[in-house]
Write a structure and sequence with these properties.
2 helices; mainly beta; single chain
Length: 143
């Protein structure tokens, strides 16, 4: 027995009752944010790994650092391989802001992309200046 078999009908009924904007309140719960990240922290550095599959044009990914936040913008677009039967790799345009555990230097950020992972190295900021800076991403050669 598949408990989700009639989920689409249930969703339509909820849309009719509460309005179509009802589901937008639950978007972060029902669909995780993209890109998915892992964040690692040491005393003076933060390393963030972002899952961005299928990106051939890394210049279409924008990173901005501003004091204690990191903004990542871009598009995940995988080529169609036929009729889609099951979709678990989230795709589409994204604009995600990540709150960092401490302020970071906008002038000392390194970002590399290899095998679908964007790795971002950030360094702790000692002063309280805030300057939003665009970060260049380097493509790593395949091994």
């Amino acid at each position: 027995m598949d408990p989700f078999k009639n989920m689409q009908d249930w969703k339509k009924n909820m849309d009719n009752f509460f309005g179509e904007q009802f589901w937008s309140e639950f978007e972060g719960i029902l669909k995780p944010p993209i890109p998915q990240i892992n964040m690692y922290q040491s005393d003076h550095e933060i390393t963030i790994l972002c899952n961005i599959p299928g990106t051939n044009e890394i210049k279409n990914i924008d990173l901005f650092v501003d004091y204690a936040s990191l903004e990542i913008q871009g598009v995940i677009s995988l080529p169609a391989q036929g009729n889609l039967v099951q979709e678990e790799i989230l795709q589409g345009a994204f604009d995600r802001t990540i709150e960092l555990p401490f302020p970071v230097r906008g002038d000392k950020v390194e970002a590399t992309y290899k095998n679908g992972l964007l790795t971002i190295q950030l360094h702790r900021l000692i002063t309280k200046e805030s300057n939003k800076n665009r970060v260049a991403v380097r493509v790593m050669d395949e091994d």
